[in-house]
Amino acid sequence: MTTTTIKAPMPGVFYRRPDPDDPVFVEEGDHVEEGDVIGVVGVMKSFQDIKSDASGTVSKILVENEAAIEAGDDLVELELD
Amino acid sequence: MTARIERKESLSPRYEYGGDDYVFVELDQEMSFDANFEAMAITQQIRERDLPGIIEICPANASYMIHFDPDVLAPTDLVDELKQLEQETDLSEYQWDTRIIDFPVLYDDPWTHETLMQFRENHQDPDATDLEYSARINGFDSADEFIDAHAGAPHMVTMVGFVPGLPWCFQMVPREEQIEVPKYLQPRTDTPSRAVGFGGAFTAIYPVQGAGGYQLFGRTPLEVLDVDQQLPSFKDSMVFPKPGDILNFRRIDREEYDAIREEIEDGTYEYTIEAVEFSPEEFFENPHEYNAQLVEVLD
Amino acid sequence: MIKVLEAGLSTTIQDAGRYGHYHIGMPPSGAMDQFAHTVANYLVGNDKGAATVEMTYQGSDFKFTEDTVIAITGAEMAPELNGEPVSMWETLAVSDGDVLSLQFATNGARTYLAVAGGIDVTPVMESRSTYTLVGIGGYDGRTLEDGDTLTIGDAGADRSSLVGNSVADEHIPNYDDEDHIRIVLGLCDYRLTDESKEELCDAEWTVTPEADRVGYRLEGPEIEFKPREQPFGAGTDPSNVVDLGYPVGSIQVPQKPIVLMRDAVTGGGYATVGTVISTDRDLLSQRRTHQPVYFQSVTLEEALAARKARTETLESIRNSLTP
């Protein structure tokens, strides 16, 4: 099985949900298409969607909700289709 | 009634360096006409001297600030110059050319009312409106009387800033007649553009929609910021108010508000502006009479 | 022309700044790191006032539609020209059709792209700097978007002979090591308790994710104020003063400190307690969210010496370039 890791394209705070009361964007085991939003990063008073750059199944979520992240940090591991 | 403006015995300015390229001068820790007029007088004179190396000259309510290039103008020389100006300036003999402007306000308007009702949990008095609360803590019997007081004497623009075009306005009455209202306990996340707000001892006009913590009294149909400079009164600058301007807030009704808005949106409205020479001395002596003379020129 | 293929997170056109309007609430804007901006301009033969592209945290991808000369300075963004790595702090030749792509910032936060002749946008109040709050300057007063097209100013002469010039290693900042930011204490620091004044300089502060071109909000210990009787016209909060002007670089303390940057709010009612010196405003703007900052109190003389040293460095860089 080939895996890929979605990395943070910017530093900030990683959120797994669009809003505190909303469900998470993705759980382990979910299938995502290329371009699907897997989380958002809050930085400079705005929120940036983090999109999957491939289609596959989420095998590991590598950061906690509201974690402080650096650009380049591993966020989500995917098993490619 | 012969109310006078109580003069400050003396100011004791503090000269402070802001890094290597700013001088900040706090004329007084509290607001007074003496402190503000001193800030006006010194900044106007330093502007006239046109010293090489000066980048920004910013009068504020009870202080002023200069941004300069220390490679051209030594910081200590600048402070010496400012101290000398301070020594030489006698407000009794100082006058300046300024403008008096008719500033219509729709008090208790529907837009700021809707906003303030959304943020009652941020307020000192959730069961009253901002006007009712301000009237009560300033000893007025009704919001209506309070509005009459706010619109009853002109305001001087004692500072412009925070964002482009926002004027701080200080009412030209003796201290005992000054309105004082605290800001919201927690700032709002929203305020309509052109809202007329009040915080501390100052009226502010919000140039654009945004966060804010001032008590909301009304909305003016006039713009204070016109980025595209479409309106004739913004020909020279995208910001309308200038420090030292005198604004005469005039209570208007919805009909007049709508009529003015229409002209503003057409880009045809011309602000009513008259040139006046302001004399601190005459103002200090008999503010009410002096204000009446000032306002007369608008008729 | 330069076509913006991917704009990145927050990319704007900036120059040396817009001056003379602070008293009506207009901040200078301009490149947050004036040192990197100036060096980039020098490398391509421009005056320091020419407009450059400022990229924050995330680089952009550009396609050039003419031959020209460029330089990239500031935070490391692993630039590639047509897929091949190219150096930063060096004069580079680009040809019609070339694609320049930059990644995210790894050492520093902001990167500058200068092009011979400068980025040509219409000046507003004599500056090409973008001030997004009211939407003036730069490219339509906003951050760049995918598909925008930038016009290159007239360089006057062929600048290709500058290609290959580079900045000596000793003059290239290592931004991630620059955690000490020098300040001149003062302004309204009389509002702080002696302990808080000391703590301001002793504590480790952390850049928060909100930090932007308006201000750098920092996280750290609680600041405490001296008790007082509220002066007439000041707000009721212990941090309030009668509204006053804020220097760019000043540290205001609505509890946690905020250092005002080049898109500053120009004044307000929070006590200011010191000012980051002009040279170190550049360095602070290269700190990334979550990185530590330590304030170091210096005298006016030390601040002026730092400024002089920086001017000499810039002159030395300019003189080292072979035309």
UniProtKB/TrEMBL annotation, chain A:
<dbReference type="GO" id="GO:0006633">
    <property type="term" value="P:fatty acid biosynthetic process"/>
</dbReference>
<dbReference type="GO" id="GO:0003989">
    <property type="term" value="F:acetyl-CoA carboxylase activity"/>
</dbReference>
<protein>
    <recommendedName>
        <fullName>Biotin carboxyl carrier protein of acetyl-CoA carboxylase</fullName>
    </recommendedName>
</protein>
<dbReference type="GO" id="GO:0009317">
    <property type="term" value="C:acetyl-CoA carboxylase complex"/>
</dbReference>
<dbReference type="Pfam" id="PF00364">
    <property type="entry name" value="Biotin_lipoyl"/>
</dbReference>
<dbReference type="InterPro" id="IPR050709">
    <property type="entry name" value="Biotin_Carboxyl_Carrier/Decarb"/>
</dbReference>
<dbReference type="InterPro" id="IPR001249">
    <property type="entry name" value="AcCoA_biotinCC"/>
</dbReference>
<keyword id="KW-0092">Biotin</keyword>
<dbReference type="InterPro" id="IPR000089">
    <property type="entry name" value="Biotin_lipoyl"/>
</dbReference>
<dbReference type="InterPro" id="IPR011053">
    <property type="entry name" value="Single_hybrid_motif"/>
</dbReference>
<feature type="domain" description="Lipoyl-binding">
    <location>
        <begin position="1"/>
        <end position="79"/>
    </location>
</feature>
UniProtKB/TrEMBL annotation, chain B:
<dbReference type="InterPro" id="IPR010016">
    <property type="entry name" value="PxpB"/>
</dbReference>
<dbReference type="GO" id="GO:0005524">
    <property type="term" value="F:ATP binding"/>
</dbReference>
<keyword id="KW-0808">Transferase</keyword>
<dbReference type="GO" id="GO:0016740">
    <property type="term" value="F:transferase activity"/>
</dbReference>
<keyword id="KW-0547">Nucleotide-binding</keyword>
<feature type="domain" description="Carboxyltransferase">
    <location>
        <begin position="13"/>
        <end position="235"/>
    </location>
</feature>
<dbReference type="Pfam" id="PF02682">
    <property type="entry name" value="CT_C_D"/>
</dbReference>
<dbReference type="GO" id="GO:0016787">
    <property type="term" value="F:hydrolase activity"/>
</dbReference>
<protein>
    <submittedName>
        <fullName>Carboxyltransferase domain-containing protein</fullName>
    </submittedName>
</protein>
<dbReference type="InterPro" id="IPR029000">
    <property type="entry name" value="Cyclophilin-like_dom_sf"/>
</dbReference>
<keyword id="KW-0378">Hydrolase</keyword>
<keyword id="KW-0067">ATP-binding</keyword>
<dbReference type="InterPro" id="IPR003833">
    <property type="entry name" value="CT_C_D"/>
</dbReference>
TrEMBL record, chain C:
<protein>
    <submittedName>
        <fullName>5-oxoprolinase/urea amidolyase family protein</fullName>
    </submittedName>
</protein>
<dbReference type="GO" id="GO:0016829">
    <property type="term" value="F:lyase activity"/>
</dbReference>
<keyword id="KW-0378">Hydrolase</keyword>
<keyword id="KW-0456">Lyase</keyword>
<dbReference type="InterPro" id="IPR052708">
    <property type="entry name" value="PxpC"/>
</dbReference>
<keyword id="KW-0547">Nucleotide-binding</keyword>
<dbReference type="GO" id="GO:0016787">
    <property type="term" value="F:hydrolase activity"/>
</dbReference>
<dbReference type="InterPro" id="IPR029000">
    <property type="entry name" value="Cyclophilin-like_dom_sf"/>
</dbReference>
<dbReference type="Pfam" id="PF02626">
    <property type="entry name" value="CT_A_B"/>
</dbReference>
<feature type="domain" description="Carboxyltransferase">
    <location>
        <begin position="23"/>
        <end position="313"/>
    </location>
</feature>
<dbReference type="GO" id="GO:0005524">
    <property type="term" value="F:ATP binding"/>
</dbReference>
<dbReference type="InterPro" id="IPR003778">
    <property type="entry name" value="CT_A_B"/>
</dbReference>
<keyword id="KW-0067">ATP-binding</keyword>
